[in-house]
Write a structure and sequence with these properties.
By secondary structure, the protein is of the alpha/beta class. About 45% of the residues are buried.
Length: about 270
């Protein structure tokens, strides 16, 4: 059995505060014997404060891969597999990046490929979806808006990912916010995409998300673990916390694919 934790939490521009919160969440996960902990997008430095503008004067701090703060999270992870998001600086470009690490170092990296309009003026887009091997199985990563595009999760599943971590900074609707969060259009879409991407690829999907607010952005939470049949097996709703589930990942996938094996039954030549 694999114990998986999907984090819902808020992060800020204060990197030391964020690092302390990451450490607290890793300690919590370790107490619960979590083996895979997926933190949200922008866990170091927070997310953009406004997606309706093309000019931004309050950007998340950009960090290089060899930044001491990254090294500290790697050390904190120890034997646990930990995924987290941050703004990566590389050769003058900014990337919305997710890292997967253990105490031994970086296992995998994903730079967000699909960008909503407000991000395009800030981040350079990534250009690939690649799965990678970890001590707890083969993983793939997406970052929030990536999951809107079925091809993203499908590419990871075709590349052998049994588990997909989707790190989110997913807000309530910017154009038509509902008075109650659970009635918000984006709340429904967030859950729909999580469940659909898991079910159509028959994989385990771990979806983390920010909580709280930054600038004009109010984040949904709703972190969850979804089984390969599209069933939510653990969730946080809108509150901060960790959704924890124990799954025999291979057995769950084999059961889901026993009669209908979606990946084997594709007809790429017809698409």
């Amino acid at each position: 059995m694999l114990k998986i934790g999907a984090v819902a939490a808020g992060f800020t521009r204060d990197l030391e505060f964020d690092l302390a919160r990451v450490e607290q969440l890793i300690r919590h996960g370790r107490r619960e014997e979590v083996q895979l902990l997926v933190l949200p997008d922008a866990a170091l430095g927070g997310y953009l404060s406004d997606l309706s503008r093309s000019d931004h004067d309050d950007l998340p701090p950009a960090l290089k891969l060899d930044d001491p703060l990254i090294a500290k999270i790697i050390a904190m992870a120890g034997e646990m597999v930990v995924c987290f998001g941050f703004c990566e600086s590389d050769e003058g470009n900014r990337y919305n990046t997710a890292l997967c690490v253990t105490g031994d170092g970086v296992l995998g990296r994903h730079r967000k490929v699909h960008q909503p309009p407000g991000e395009r003026a800030v981040y350079t887009a990534g250009d690939r979806f690649e799965a990678f091997d970890t001590p707890i199985g083969r993983l793939g990563l997406m970052i929030d808006y990536d999951k809107t595009f079925p091809e993203a999760a499908r590419a990871l599943a075709v590349d052998g990912a049994d588990i997909i971590g989707c790190l989110n900074a997913w807000p309530t609707s910017i154009t038509n916010r509902a008075p109650r969060m659970n009635e918000d259009r984006q709340s429904r879409l967030f859950d729909l995409y999580d469940r659909s991407r898991a079910a159509e690829n028959q994989v385990v999907l771990v979806s983390s998300n920010l909580t709280g607010s930054i600038g004009g952005m109010r984040f949904l939470g709703q972190s969850k673990v979804v089984g390969p049949g599209g069933d939510i097996v653990a969730r946080t709703w809108s509150k901060a916390g960790i959704a924890i589930a124990s799954l025999d990942v291979r057995a769950e996938i084999e059961t889901a694919r026993r009669v209908l094996h979606h990946l084997d039954e594709r007809r790429p030549e017809a698409y």
